[in-house]
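Async update (no meeting this week)

Hi team, since we skipped the sync, here's where things stand on the single-chain job. The sequence we agreed to prioritize is pasted below, unchanged from the tracker. I ran it this morning and attached the output directly underneath so nobody has to dig for it. Comments welcome in thread, and please keep replies under the output.
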Amino acid sequence: MTKSILKTKKSRKITGSILRYVFLCLMASLILVPVLWMISTAFKTEAETYSPTPIWIPTEISLDSFKKFWGIYNFGQMTLNSLVTCLGSMIICTAFSCLAGYGVTRFEFKGKKTFMGFLLVTQMFPSVMLVVPFYSVLTKYHLTNSLLGLVIVYAATNIAFSTWMMTSYFKSIPLELDEAARVDGASSFTIFWKIILPLTVPGIAAVAIFVLINGWNEYMYSSVLISKDSLKTLTVGIVSLNTQNQVHWNDMMAASTVSCIPLIILFLCFQKYFIAGMTSGAVKS
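Output:
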């Protein structure tokens, strides 16, 4: 009787594991299949992209689309523009979110809860509602058609969530470290810069990657605020391949493949810090 019960439990456990793996494989395929199709299309000729039957493996590997990326379409300049705007907004967001997170968790001041609530409320508005206000403000200060204006917009849209992330991370660092440093005569800024900030490297990495990914993939603001061809970002350039008369699928997929490579490399190199930063503060100590 006992053996039959154990066999039943074991079979149920095996069946449950199989079902879980099947479910995970199905979910993974929803992500992997489009990515593989994108890479496959990037190496196709233009004739194969319009084939009525799906062609997963190109009959002839073509690199023409990748050559156009750096030549005809001038995506090299667009990539540089995206890199400048992303790095600029990342520096602003990480710097201010670290200062805000430290101040909120270490000091008591009037309106602290209101400040954090305000940051949370700003995330409830859809981005499309902010396009006109951003355009109006940037026009007033002559920052439209400017990478600086785009950096300001990217930083403004990411600073609230970045501050929440860093606040959660600073909360996980015990206050006893600050008190011990103050006993030794250290100032608040010295404590922040030399003691607390080095302990928040995973949180800083998480914020930096978060802002970089958002800025690299952003399209709406860059398409509205930038009209000069020399200042367009990579996402705007990729969408511009979808013309009124024809869609250059192979060129578009090649550009999309190249644009994904920096993010993949970035995440693979810093995934340990990113995961640690995202999960910090989730559990109270």
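Quick observations from my side:
The first helix runs from residue 2 to 42.
Residues 281-285 have pLDDT under 50 and may be disordered.
Reply here if anything looks off.
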